[in-house]
Amino acid sequence: MKLRPCLAACGLFLLAARAHAGLSDHTLDIYWNDVEGGGSTLIITPAGESILIDSGSPGGRDSARIHDTAVNVAGVKKIDYYLQTHFHMDHIGGVGELAALMPIGQVYERTVPGHDPDGGGASADGRWQISSKAYRTFASDQRNHLQAGTVIPLKVVPGPGSLPLALRCIVADQKFVDPPAGAVKNPLADQIVVHQLVPTDNDNSAAFVLDFGPFRFWDGGDLTWNFETKVVVPVNLVGQVDVYQVDHHGLAFSNNPVLIHSFAPTVSVMNNGSGKGTEKSTVEGLKSSPGILDMYQVHKDLRADHLANNTPDEFCANLASTSRPPTIPGNIIKLSVAPDGKSYTITIPSTGHTKTYQTRMGKDGPGGQK
Ligand SMILES: [Zn+2]
Prior knowledge:
Blueprint: H1 3-10, H2 12-19, H3 21-25, E1 28-32, E2 41-44, E3 50-53, H4 61-73, E4 79-83, H5 89-92, H6 95-101, E5 104-109, H7 122-131, H8 133-137, E6 142-145, E7 151-152, E8 165-172, E9 175-176, E10 207-212, E11 215-219, H9 225-232, E12 243-245, H10 257-263, E13 267-270, H11 280-287, E14 294-299, E15 316-318, E16 333-337, E17 343-348, E18 353-358
Helix pairs in contact: 4-6, 9-10
Bound molecules: zinc ion.
């Protein structure tokens, strides 16, 4: 990453300054780590608290990248909250190693399965006992049960003019929050298409909505098509969002266009890999969404039959494969919401790309009017 030599040259003074950046500038920052087609989203609140949603894959590469982003870029020494969307290795795999690199505070998780979460049978259950051990045993201050309606108790910057901040679980284990009072039927409800999919733990994925004043962000983990439908049909439980983290790395089993078009995001960010996600149906669903301006990708998809699905290079953080050897650093995407919540800036530090967007004020749907 570009920041590393600067930090080395500038020494402790800059490091110290960065360590307090979240407290002094009161922005809400979101970082997408490059975990090669897994999930790992780091959020730093205006009060300086850190939240990590998922932790990529095991093997040292992803935990090292997450640690680097947290400590050297975001300037935090601890993960205050660790949130687990579901129990696949590209989402749980890094946290055991990360816990050895930096302390982890409060964990929010669904009930950890005692068997293969995809129901693979006795031999798969045996493999799960081994592969999940690092997850089941990593050190933290406390482990808490996560379910639909769980609100992470984040601090708000004290003082007049500070914006409300809320991070809420909308769905987990196929259970949803109650519809808001007075919610009306989604006008897109008659467009739903049902797909018959093999059940996996993706169906049980937790999904989160982060509100900061008028700004709204969606992280749906790997929630799948038919359960995405239930987020917005018969009524939209979320309303419109500014930034949509593309579900499930951009795979076609997810990213139901009824969900995307009901959210009507201004910007999407896809945590894909150079050979994972970025499916044509997902990209078409995003491109046809009302009000969308730009689509970011953590990786350019390098597969020949996926090249046409890519967003322009300037919106990709990694244009080449960075998966091997594991010492190659991955490039992050950073989003920073202004303290008044009225605008947000997305940067790709490795390329210098930066673009500012206006928060869509007075959003339609539940909670849209602040
Ligand atoms: Zn995944």
